[in-house]
Write a structure and sequence with these properties.
The protein is α+β, with helices and mostly antiparallel strands. It contains 12 helices and 17 strands. Strands 9, 10, 11, 12, 13, 14, 15, 16 and 17 form a 9-stranded antiparallel β-sheet that branches. The longest helix has 17 residues, at 223-239. The structure holds adenosine monophosphate. Residues 115, 138, 140, 145, 148, 175, 177-178, 183, 206, 249, 260-261 line the site of adenosine monophosphate.
Length: 372
């Protein structure tokens, strides 16, 4: 298969960064968007808010292979596309990752530890799940949740009805609340011939449910955890016969790693790789889906990714700082909206923290830096 033109479903910042990574490889990009609010600002846009067959046909006529930037994509659309053009990651991967119940079942099938869980279809079943698991629990809508939305922590039995009503979803995955020491993630890419390469484990810090900082590589990771993370994600990639980049979020606990959730796409916790690794997650995803050899996934230097949420930055002040790489998405700032990120790199971890503090001093209202 000779790929010249790549189709992306979804027109947000992940599509934009894929296109930016693929243009030096000579690829053309066609972007299909049904949201009515495309922001990628790159490639040829097929805007189709009312889902007309005609616009989809025009898009498919232009592309050699199709990928997507978000997993909340109708499965029937994915299946229709897969009948006409190669779709990576495949529809099985999409179906598994967009439903927490299926995702958990696959973790279990593959022997990947995950928090204990039950499924609840009613407030009564939610109560029984709490009885079985013990308090506290985290209840999550089985589908459509992201960035902590559609979730509730239940700490007392009399909170069950309120949690059920607040989430307002007919099927919940109810998990034991995990007291983790930190949140990690691993990103790996599987090529068209089944070869797998993993990026190192990274450490993620959230504020109000949104990722704010990623430190890559994560500090003081034991060899056992590094091997386990690579092993877990490789099992998932092979089981799904996956092609492209997959992200797996993990909780680190004194008892070992637990898989939280996965995303069948390039991931915010991999943005550091644009400046901290030889080959970014975006380029590796494109290499995989177009049948090219995969690039080096090792971290080249300690990197901190700072997410810019709903703010504008003083470009002059930030560009004046050394080893600081700005990636703005050309989006209008709104509270909670990801509008860009900054990768800060350094030769050592301690000089990295010093450099990040300098960057933070010229940014508006950022959450506390965890390595102060
Ligand atoms: P998720 O949408 O599953 O990634 O959950 C969003 C955030 O909620 C995670 O990043 C964790 O900080 C927290 N969280 C999710 N599941 C659990 C759990 N079982 N125990 C404790 N915290 C959790």
């Amino acid at each position: 298969m000779s790929v010249k033109s790549i189709g992306i479903l979804g027109a947000g910042q992940l599509a934009r960064m894929m296109a930016l990574a693929g243009m030096p490889l000579g690829y053309r990009f066609n972007i299909y968007d049904t949201s009515g609010a495309p922001s990628a600002g790159i490639g040829t846009l097929f805007s189709d808010p009312s889902n007309t067959q005609q616009e989809l046909n025009s898009f498919l006529a232009e592309v050699d292979v199709v990928t997507y930037e978000f997993e909340h994509l109708p499965l029937d659309l994915a299946n229709t596309i897969a009948q006409r053009k190669p779709l990576h990651p495949n529809a099985l991967s999409l179906a598994t990752c967009q439903d927490r119940e299926r995702e958990k079942a696959m973790f279990t099938e593959l022997g990947i530890p995950t928090p204990r869980y039950r499924i609840a279809h009613s407030a009564d079943e939610l109560r029984r799940a709490v009885d079985a698991l013990g308090l506290p629990v985290v209840a999550k809508s089985a589908t459509e949740g992201y960035d902590g939305k559609g979730q509730a922590v239940i700490r007392a039995l009399d909170e069950v009805d309120a949690a059920w009503n607040k989430i307002g979803h007919p099927r919940l995955v109810v998990e034991s609340f995990v007291t983790f020491s930190r949140e990690l993630s691993v990103i790996a890419v599987r090529g068209a011939q089944g070869e797998v390469k993993s990026y190192p484990l990274v450490e993620n810090h959230h504020h109000e449910g949104i990722l704010r900082y990623t430190l890559a590589p994560a500090r003081q990771v034991s060899a056992t955890h590094a091997d386990q993370a690579a092993d877990f994600i490789t099992r998932l990639l092979n089981r799904l016969d996956y092609v492209g980049v997959l992200a797996l979020e993990l909780f680190e606990t004194p008892q070992g790693l637990l898989a939280n959730e996965m995303a069948p796409r390039v991931h915010n916790s991999g943005h550091w790789s644009m400046n901290g690794a030889a080959t970014s997650q975006f380029e590796n995803h494109l290499r995989a889906i177009s049948g090219l050899p995969l690039g080096n996934t090792e971290a080249q230097r300690p990197t901190c990714m700072i997410n810019l949420i709903g703010c504008e930055i003083d470009l002059k002040a930030v560009t004046a700082l050394p080893d600081c790489y700005i990636h703005l998405y050309d989006k209008t700032p709104r509270p909670g909206r990801k509008v860009g990120h900054i990768n800060v790199c350094a030769e050592t971890e301690s000089s990295l923290h010093e450099r990040v503090r300098q960057v933070l001093s010229v940014l508006p209202s950022m959450p506390d830096y965890p390595y102060a």
